[in-house]
Design goal:
By secondary structure, the protein is of the alpha/beta class. It folds into two domains: about 170 residues, Rossmann fold (3-Layer(aba) Sandwich), CATH 3.40.50.1400; about 140 residues, 3-Layer(aba) Sandwich (Rossmann fold), CATH 3.40.50. It is built from eleven helices and eight strands. Helix 1 packs across helix 2, helix 3 crosses helix 11 and helix 9 packs parallel to helix 10. The longest helix is centred in the N-terminal third of the chain and has 27 residues. It starts with 7 loop residues before the first strand and ends with a helix. The relative contact order is 0.14. The mean pLDDT is about 95.
Length: about 350
């Protein structure tokens, strides 16, 4: 009988990060990220011209400055949190598992991570993208890249893809626990801000013909089970329910819009101005599409949108910290892995 230390592999994959906050490294990262056909789903030539000729040249220096503010002595927070999560999950799962971390863009790459797992001669490989809600531009892109890399393998272990966990009780409990350090009664309003997507991409994923019609995303049902917006709303409402919030107490919105075409609405920027006009002084913000603190949370919400809110008349915009390597998040990942069959 063949004896091995590891029988099952777990591949955690997050979005990615530049190698450094230097403009040239941010340039490379943004080019790789935004030329992904699942991120900007336009024909190849048009996408290349748009990204490399317009979007990235006009944004990479500004983005590099934001990454410089975000960077720590140990490096990129997204990567640091990822490594910590990998190590803690490895400890939680034990020697029968091999846990590896990878990034969809830049390093450690999906190819590097999969090679480590291939050499382990596993019985089963579990792919776990670190995006609670499914979207073609995130989870779908990870799955496609993984499949492109493993298609040349001679031997295939049993493959399991975990493509969403937006309503997992452990995930909801972890976000609620993060919020416990903030007295909810001291805030005038609470925002659930998710990363935005173009409405066109949401419609392209529609299989029921009712995408983005009134109330079509109110609940996740069989017909819209892959709808990113419906899953986002389900996550927010599950957190709100556990925190005993009434519908009037919170707003679900979307951030990080790129370009002029319509994206998922309401936009966080519009909601912030509306709340300021209503006289709200202090607001608390969850970002439940991000499991790790990163540029879109630490910089975009805690700094940029906080400044927007203050200029509009508000007092403060407080971000609820990401799950990062919180023990409840590790427990959630362990549960997802061990119950993936």
């Amino acid at each position: 009988m063949v004896k091995r230390d590891h029988k099952r592999g777990v591949f955690l994959v997050n979005l990615g990060t530049p190698k450094s906050p230097q403009p040239r490294d941010v340039l490379h990262y943004l080019n790789e990220f935004l030329t992904d056909a699942r991120v900007i789903d336009k024909p190849w030539l048009k996408r290349q011209l748009l990204v490399r000729g317009l979007i990235v040249p006009s944004r990479y220096k500004q983005s590099a400055e934001l990454y410089r503010r975000l960077w720590t002595l140990k490096g990129s927070p997204l990567l640091i949190h990822g490594i910590n999560v990998k190590n803690r999950l490895q400890d939680a799962l034990g020697k029968d598992y091999l846990v590896v971390i990878g990034m969809r863009y830049q390093e450690p790459s999906i190819a590097e991570g999969l090679e480590i797992l291939r050499q382990a001669n596993l019985d089963e490989l579990i792919i776990l993208p670190l995006f609670p809600q499914y979207a073609s531009a995130t989870t779908g892109s990870v799955i496609q890249k993984v499949m492109e890399n493993i298609r040349t393998w001679t031997n295939f272990p049993k493959l399991t893809f975990i493509n969403h966990y937006y309503d997992h009780p452990g995930l909801i409990n972890a976000f609620c626990t993060r919020a416990s350090q903030y007295p909810l009664d001291s805030y005038d309003h609470i925002l659930f801000s998710f990363h935005g997507l173009p409405e066109r991409q949401i419609r392209n994923a529609d299989s029921c013909g009712r995408c983005l019609t009134p109330r079509c995303c109110e609940n996740v049902v069989q017909e819209n089970r892959f709808c990113y917006k419906a899953q986002c709303m389900a996550t927010a409402r599950a957190i709100a329910t556990q925190l005993h919030l009434q519908e009037k107490d919170y707003t679900i919105c979307f951030q990080s819009r790129l370009g002029k075409e319509p994206w998922l609405q309401p936009y966080l920027s519009d909601v912030i101005h509306s709340c300021a006009k209503k006289g709200y002084a202090r607001m608390l913000v969850f970002s439940p599409s991000f499991v790790s603190d990163c540029l879109e949370t630490t910089c975009e919400i805690s700094h940029e949108y906080d400044e927007v809110f203050k200029k509009a008349g508000g007092h403060s915009l407080q971000l609820v910290e990401g799950l990062n390597d919180h023990p409840l998040w590790i427990d959630t990942l362990k549960d997802l892995v061990t119950h993936s069959n």
